[in-house]
């Protein structure tokens, strides 16, 4: 199709990673960039040859040429900027999480419906090569009946920007909630979570969140499945791990314990010593337009002198960035819901928010709003 979507990127730290992807996507026009710091705005604009530049987000939204905004600002700004954009008649892609409160998640779902615009939370894990590999196994029937799902996200956030210190672990849970809900397109119905251990007092007092680890069970609506997810951000000795595991009646997939090693497939009914075997997850660049296929293997932040902490610790997000951009643009061109859409994004985000509330209440069961009904 020859149609092109005029995209504006908001926030040029991690957000700059997507500029060359949109520039080379056949249905996108990398139209504008927005950054409060003018020197950085101009440096990035000059580097990539982008003429339309804004230091004011409101001015950007007043530009009638902008079709869609891709928000990569700090977490506390996500909900406000998303709501402004939707109400200004712009489609929205936003980095995770959708919001920091259930109330704001509800507002975004309502605003998406009222505006008639599309919303997509740019959850990297559900477009990472490992997830796409498991999804392929599931769709081919090789897993058999899925019996249980599990995910973790453990990370040392020391040295990250000022809105991270002391953050409740489950307030940034979409990287582990997304894959367990996303594989079978399940809707979380209620959650129970326990806190464990304590972080240093100077960190704990920032958000009144004492826990070093939060671990939650998620019950899915209209399904016999539940999932287990756990998170840690501070004062836990662990190499970065953003894992996703699925247990089926025929085959199961387990994430490696150490970064850089291969995952393991377990196959039922084999001799015991043959059940487990390491596998290499293939790349899925062939899902993408040829012009952006090369971005699954490298990006802006692969260079040593231009590294972002999400890449140093996150392993490049499994080649997901061009898949995310392509899904967003394709949904707009085809006039369909992106994955994850607004209600799914709200559901995944609210699992974490309410899991933390559950932990503060000693593991109480907490129901999620019916976001699907609101959409």
TrEMBL record:
Record domain Gfo/Idh/MocA-like oxidoreductase N-terminal: where: 5-121
One MF annotation (Gene Ontology) recorded for this entry: nucleotide binding
Record-linked InterPro entries: Gfo/Idh/MocA-like_OxRdtase_N, Gfo/Idh/MocA_Oxidoreductase, NAD(P)-bd_dom_sf
Domain of life the protein comes from: Bacteria
Name of the protein in question: Gfo/Idh/MocA family oxidoreductase
Organism (species): Dyadobacter pollutisoli
Lineage, uppermost ranks: Bacteria, Pseudomonadati, Bacteroidota, Cytophagia, Cytophagales
């Amino acid at each position: 199709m020859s149609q092109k979507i005029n995209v504006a990127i908001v926030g040029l730290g991690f957000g700059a990673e997507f500029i060359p992807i949109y520039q080379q996507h056949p249905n996108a026009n990398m139209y504008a960039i927005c950054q409060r710091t003018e020197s950085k705005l101009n440096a990035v604009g000059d580097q990539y040859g982008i003429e339309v530049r804004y230091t004011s987000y409101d001015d950007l939204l007043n530009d009638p040429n902008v079709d869609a905004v891709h928000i990569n600002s700090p977490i506390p700004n996500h909900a406000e900027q998303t709501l402004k954009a939707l109400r200004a008649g712009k489609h929205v892609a936003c980095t995770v999480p959708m919001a920091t409160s259930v109330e704001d998640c509800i507002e975004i779902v309502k605003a998406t419906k009222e505006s008639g615009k599309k919303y997509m939370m740019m959850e990297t894990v559900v477009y990472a090569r490992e997830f796409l590999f498991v999804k392929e196994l599931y769709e081919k029937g090789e897993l058999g009946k899925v019996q249980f799902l599990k995910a973790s996200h453990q990370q040392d956030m020391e040295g990250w920007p000022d809105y991270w210190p002391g953050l409740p672990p489950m307030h940034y849970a979409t990287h582990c909630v997304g894959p367990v809900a996303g594989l079978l397109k399940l809707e979380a119905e209620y959650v129970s979570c326990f806190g464990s251990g304590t972080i240093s007092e100077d960190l704990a007092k920032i958000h009144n969140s004492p826990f070093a680890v939060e671990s939650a069970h998620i019950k899915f609506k209209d399904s016999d499945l539940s999932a287990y997810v756990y998170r840690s951000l501070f004062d836990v000795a662990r190499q970065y791990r953003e894992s996703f595991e699925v247990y089926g009646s025929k085959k199961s997939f387990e994430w490696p314990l150490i970064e850089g090693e291969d995952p393991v497939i377990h196959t039922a009914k084999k001799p015991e010593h043959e059940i487990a075997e390491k596998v290499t997850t293939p790349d899925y660049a062939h899902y993408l337009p040829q012009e952006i296929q090369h971005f699954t293997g490298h990006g802006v932040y692969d260079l040593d002198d231009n590294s972002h902490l999400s890449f140093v610790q996150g392993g490049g997000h499994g080649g997901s960035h061009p898949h995310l951009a392509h899904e967003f643009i394709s949904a707009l061109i085809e006039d369909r819901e992106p994955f994850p859409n607004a209600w799914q994004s709200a559901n995944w985000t609210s699992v974490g928010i309410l899991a933390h509330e559950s932990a503060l209440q000693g593991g109480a069961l907490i129901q999620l709003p019916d976001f699907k009904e609101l959409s």
